[in-house]
Fold this sequence. Notes:
Blueprint: H1 3-6, H2 24-51, H3 69-74, H4 86-94, H5 98-114, H6 116-124, H7 132-139, H8 145-160, H9 167-180, H10 186-195, E1 198-203, E2 210-215, H11 218-233, H12 247-260, E3 276-277, H13 280-283, E4 290-292, E5 295-297, H14 299-308, H15 341-364, H16 375-390, H17 439-484, H18 486-492, H19 496-502, H20 505-516, E6 529-532, E7 539-543, H21 545-554, H22 571-581, E8 599-601, E9 615-617, H23 620-628, E10 633-636, E11 642-645, E12 651-654
Antiparallel strand pairs: 1-2, 3-4, 4-5, 6-7, 8-9, 10-11, 11-12
Helix pairs in contact: 2-5, 2-6, 4-5, 7-9, 11-12, 16-17, 17-18, 18-19
Amino acid sequence: MDEMECGAVAPAPTAPTVGWASGPLGAAQAADREIARQTALRARALAAFAATRPASADRQPGHPGAMSSERRASRPEVLADVSEWAAQELAIALSITTPAAEMQVSRALTLVHRLPGVLSALEAGSLHVGHLWPLLEKVAPIGAAAVRARLERDLLAWIAGRSVTTPAQLGSKIRRELLARNVRTAAQELKEALARRGVRCVPASVDGMAMLQALLTVPEAEALLDALGRYADALDDTDTEGPPRTRQQKMADCMLDLVLRPGETQLPTVQAQLTVVAPVAALVGGDQPGEVNDHPVPAEMVRALAKGLGLLPDDGSGDDSPSTPATAVPPAEFTVDPDDEVTGLVLAAADERWWAEVEARALRGEWGGEDDPPLDQLERYWAAEAEWMADWPDADDESFPRELGPDAAPGTGPDAAPDGAAQPMDGRAATATEPDTPWWALADRSVAEAGRSLLELDRRLAAARRAVERARLADLDDRDDWEQSPAGRVSAATDAISALAHASVGKRAALAELLDRTAGGGLADRPRIAVTDALTGALLVLTDARELRAAAVAGRGLGPPDASSTYRPGLKLDRFVRARDRRCRFPGCRRRVPLGGELDHRESWPDGATSAENLVGFCTGHHRGKHQAPGWCYELTAEGTLIITTPSGLTATTDPPPF
Length: 659
């Protein structure tokens, strides 16, 4: 294996076709080329790693525990000679999931063995990472090596002859070339997609919501969508309470009804199973979140689900959620009609009195009330007024405009009203002006009006600031009230016992009834009490109300279930380990531990006991890898910490997820 294959060296990147920019933009160009170069180096390194993990080391088809034929058929063709355990080792090394690691190896092998020219162009900087996806998706699957190599060469030459080529332009060019050369890859792509058909649930961006994704053929997907639409169109929400549902909401409800409540069909009845983790504080009114099948959900959804299943009484009190802060309503303001002459005269007289009071208070040094602008601001207004007045010309100045001069007739000039009356100032009705009113008196009156407008603006701003402050204080008061309420005290409790102490008598009684309830109705099992470590959240005991009372009468403590004498754990032990681990304990894996199996003995039975300290939950794939992948080491501590060492010497640890 040479240095290029193991990813040690690569040629220096070439200059962009548009040239190197100066300054920060040039640095961004260099960084982009370095990213492309490192991507190529990683591809070569992963291909070299895959070569050290041959599939010949795996259990061959026909042997017990070997990869299933379905799993083998769903793997990309380039992974046929690679061990199925290589992806698990890469997942630990790169902190990614095992499917993502398998995809990384697949793309690396595709670049190295099927698109070598593209890999070299990536190293040289002629391509960037975004160009890879259309090449990997459309060019790499071509079966004929000569056709694939010729198309790869022509595409690289086309890119080199252009100054700018975006991934979208490259994808369009590839589609045209495939059609022109009559290269058919759709059949192979469809075959691979059919192998990936399935349904999965992924978390949505909002807690308490999830997306159900189904990968189907086009006819299946369109038929399903059309059927759901027809069911939705047949529903009538006109007589229901609340706002009518949208068509999309109806389709979602119809899908739930058809799958979970099929009605009269020839299919056998099935019962969906959900594991709901509801903290005591959430059930008695606090805001601690819960879980539904390991998905975090708000406390309100936990309570709604419990009430919907009949687990908690629906008293309609509406006190489960924090109170909404009251909206501060600003005081009503007195509005006037500016066109009313009497009102205008009253306001003008009031302004004159207010102005006189302002001057008197300022001279006495009493300025500074919360309704008044600062004194220095008022002094700036007066100084600006004096400066403006000093610039006005004298009455005998020949250059003074006649329309504003001392001989100007009342109601004339550019600001005159259409009917010749004096123009109202500041939106208020003005008093009649005598014909011999000097121009400087009019100017002084205009300045006074402008000053009053500014002061009125300051007064309104001060009132607005006080309203905002009142709203803030009201919000704090509401928050304080809620913190002192039962729901607030429950939410602030540091443990379940403290939360119960703050709960109302009715809520404690409802919780006790829930815990005493046996299986039946909509429950697959009676509710369990998870006793957890207050600091770490680790599961200590999984019990119920009856066992708690029995332990109290007998004066004994509680702990994990006793070990089973057989290979299969007993019901209590199986339930405890699954509740403790919840998902596969392999680092980075999010698959659930399958029901009815996959609880692995760290020390093989019968040398190792079937106990909580010796059992750990895996998904099927990682359980097989624990027993079959050569060179791996698994250790499990008494506290439940799993320590995994890979053949490359990497070490990863996982702990049970906290409650």
